[in-house]
Amino acid sequence: MASFFSRFKEGLKKTTPTFYKIFGKVGGIFSGKKLDASSLDELEEALYGADFGVETATEIIEEIQAAYKQDKSLRGQDAARIGATVLKRVLAGAEFSTDFRAHNPEVICLIGVNGSGKTTTAAKLAWRFKEEGRGVTLGACDTFRAAANEQIKTWADRLGLDLVASQHKADAAAVAFDAWQAANSRHRDILILDTAGRLHTKSNLMEELKKIRRVLQKHDETAPHHAWLVVDGSLGSNSIEQARVFHEAFGLTGLIITKLDGTSRGGALVGIYRELGIPIAYVGLGEQKEDLQPFSVENYVNAIFGIEE
Ligand SMILES: Nc1nc2c(ncn2[C@@H]2O[C@H](COP(=O)(O)OP(=O)(O)O)[C@@H](O)[C@H]2O)c(=O)[nH]1
Ligand SMILES: [Mg+2]
């Protein structure tokens, strides 16, 4: 299996070319090139265009300019390292960590708008936990769309996952209730609930989520232990507003940012974290089951700036 870092690098390859062009890959042919007024301008433009958000881009450019003032022989690779240091500082605390063993089962609720990647992510996540030796049950709480059950069943069959599902139009909260019971009696460590893609502006759909929570709390008053918003990373900074609405309605404990492989706006993750302060549990870097990776600040930042070490 490819290393964590190479998955990040591969997954972010649509975001990074502009940076590679300007900073040069560390150790690559451009990296030894000295900066000058025109490459600094180009750099500034690229930083503002990368969807990091104005605040972060400004901090990076200011630190690079200050270093350049001190030392006119500053090279592309030095600028890349300064950028990486700033980004790591901004992303401090953004990684998610828990051992998922505090409850029986530990309940993770995946929520988000249609097409953000919830169902795919639920399956990839279940597969990952299983590979790590944990017992996992999937609950198919998207009873709203006719094709939803088939989609999650296909994944479960393909990856050999334990699934609790009901019929189309069944009560989503009832599926959550049953899935919890099944996971508990089977002594699973983790229950992952896939939910319907509710538009955050439709309050009835938000109500359905709240009902899922109430029903779970009949079993375990601390459930769900994790409410993770699955966000399409290619929306760039537009996803911040979406995340804010879900956070206000449901109290998010983590984010999963998908489709970073399909976008040049992979920098938006920085703005989302900076704005909301919600840790990023996983990122989607492709369509293969192993492309859902725990978020690593080190790997992400180094991949963005082309630093390999
Ligand atoms: N390239 C890429 N595609 C993804 C990723 N995550 C999800 N998708 C695709 O996004 C589409 C919508 O995913 P789905 O799980 O059905 O979204 P849902 O409506 O939120 O359940 C599917 O075609 C997935 O294969 C990712 O990380 N990278
Ligand atoms: Mg779905």
UniProtKB/TrEMBL annotation:
Source organism, top-level taxon: Bacteria
Signal peptide region: none
Top class in the EC scheme: hydrolase
Location in or out of the cell: Cell membrane; Cytoplasm
Catalytic activity, EC: 3.6.5.4
Key words of the record: Cell membrane, Cytoplasm, GTP-binding, Hydrolase, Membrane, Nucleotide-binding, Receptor
GO BP terms, alphabetized: SRP-dependent cotranslational protein targeting to membrane
SMART domains attached to this UniProt entry: AAA, SRP54, SRP54_N
Residue ranges of domain SRP54-type proteins GTP-binding in the record: 105-306
Summary of the function given for this chain in its UniProt record: Involved in targeting and insertion of nascent membrane proteins into the cytoplasmic membrane. Acts as a receptor for the complex formed by the signal recognition particle (SRP) and the ribosome-nascent chain (RNC).
Subunit structure: Part of the signal recognition particle protein translocation system, which is composed of SRP and FtsY.
Protein name (database record): Signal recognition particle receptor FtsY
Lineage: Bacteria, Pseudomonadati, Verrucomicrobiota, Opitutia, Puniceicoccales
